[in-house]
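Deliverable D2.4 — example input (structure tokens):
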């Protein structure tokens, strides 16, 4: 009964949103997203006033489907902002932080990046060495981050730093929001295998952050990070989705696709189509579970492996053309007209390799599934209870 009421409320809000725009296809993207946020249809499970209606996240899929069918602008695809950043701020942000940051995160007016990984702390994120030392109403941050996607264009970052090196590694961390325009931040782009440079090394030297940008309590940064990481994994699994129709188009375009020699490939295409359906259903199940659970790891691992198989199959279907056609020079120039990997399977092959690394490697996500979903014995952790300062580091 309650769920039915929720559905009515959500439907009425969608009607109201669409009624505000004579033709959603012509709507200004920012204006449309602002209205979507204000009506509680941004993250529908968030609180009223924070872009939500406090109802099950399972409604989000049908909201997006109805909006897209009406020709509304696409949802912001920036997954640090839309998933991890938003989930963290919604979970522990003060009313002021939520009012300041959530709306422009959703509309895309503010760009965000994630300052987590370090040269010595990727899978072992809790071992990170960037320090934040309190100085009155401010924190002074020093350290080095790496693989920071979108750092070059970001207005804001979510940042985890060590505030108490005498505590064991998980307990001495604090979570901050970092203004990327303040002095002391040096961003050096890193180029990846496909020629593009979407991530960077970020050096923080005496960066001063006001205490009002601390997110959550001092020493509780790990808990905030983990809640956000579950959401990020769900987001990564969701974000990199190439429509299966693209594979079928390539299959149909093959001149000999009816020949006996192509039978093996036909099996592969069928298997990929089934894999796509299974993934889509798991994504639906995850959305219904609110997206902030360790279940995000299952979709993340499955999506990474599926995309690697799919991209490889797409290039096989292209035949000899699958070996060429990648405009590396356009990538180097950051040419806006360069082929997107949705269009260019050659590009997709290279990009898909990163999918089982970013957002936590598949091995780490399997550990999480084993421990937190299946209840299997945990990984061996010899440094868990030792003060971080005493743990040997390379
Ligand atoms: C495209 C891309 C974008 C990224 N964007 C960001 C970003 O925006 N912000 C950010 O902070 N980071 C980002 N990262 C970094 C990413 O989170 C790390 O690369 C990842 O967590 C792995 O860390 P690492 O590279 O240090 O590898 P390591 O931790 O050194 O791991 C090396 C290998 O050892 C395995 N391994 C390690 N520990 C275990 C264990 N306990 N059990 C089993 N196997 C283990 C790993 O699975 C891996 O195969 C990005 C990475 C990529 C590829």
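Example output (designed residues):
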């Amino acid at each position: 009964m309650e769920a039915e009421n929720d559905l009515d409320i959500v439907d009425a809000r969608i009607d109201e949103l669409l009624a505000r725009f004579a033709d959603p296809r012509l709507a200004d993207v920012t204006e449309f997203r602002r209205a979507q946020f204000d009506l509680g249809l941004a993250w529908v499970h968030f609180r009223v006033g924070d872009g939500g209606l406090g109802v099950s996240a399972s409604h989000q899929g049908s909201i997006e489907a109805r909006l897209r069918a009406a020709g509304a602008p696409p949802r912001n695809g920036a997954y640090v902002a839309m998933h991890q950043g938003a989930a963290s701020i919604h979970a522990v942000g003060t009313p002021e932080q939520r009012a300041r940051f959530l709306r422009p995160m959703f509309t895309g007016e503010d760009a965000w990046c994630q300052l987590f990984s370090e040269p010595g702390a990727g899978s072992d994120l809790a071992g990170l060495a960037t320090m934040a030392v309190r100085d009155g109403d401010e924190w002074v941050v020093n350290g080095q981050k790496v693989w920071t996607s979108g750092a070059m264009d970001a207005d804001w970052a979510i940042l985890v730093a060590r505030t108490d090196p005498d505590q064991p590694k998980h307990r001495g961390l604090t979570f901050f929001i970092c203004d990327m325009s303040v002095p002391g931040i040096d961003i050096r782009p890193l180029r990846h295998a496909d020629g593009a440079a979407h991530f960077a090394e970020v050096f923080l030297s005496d960066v001063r952050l006001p205490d009002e940008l601390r997110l959550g309590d001092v020493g509780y940064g790990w808990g905030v990070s983990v809640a956000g990481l579950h959401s990020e994994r769900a987001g990564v699994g969701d974000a990199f989705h190439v429509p299966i129709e693209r594979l079928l188009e390539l299959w149909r375009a093959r001149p000999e696709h009816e020949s006996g020699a192509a039978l093996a490939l036909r099996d592969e295409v069928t298997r990929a189509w089934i894999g796509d359906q299974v993934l889509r259903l798991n994504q639906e199940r995850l959305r219904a579970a609110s997206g902030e659970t360790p279940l995000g790891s299952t979709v993340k691992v499955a999506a990474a492996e599926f995309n690697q198989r799919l991209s490889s199959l797409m290039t096989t279907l292209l035949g000899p053309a699958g070996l060429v056609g990648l405009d590396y020079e356009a990538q180097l120039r950051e040419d806006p007209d360069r082929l997107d990997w949705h269009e260019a399977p050659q590009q997709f092959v290279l990009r898909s390799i990163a999918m089982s690394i970013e957002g936590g490697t598949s091995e780490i996500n399997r550990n999480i599934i084993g421990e937190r979903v299946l209840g299997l014995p945990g990984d061996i952790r010899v440094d868990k209870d030792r003060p971080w300062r005493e743990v040997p580091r390379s």
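The beta strands are 112-115, 131-135, 138-149, 156-162, 173-179, 185-190, 199-210.
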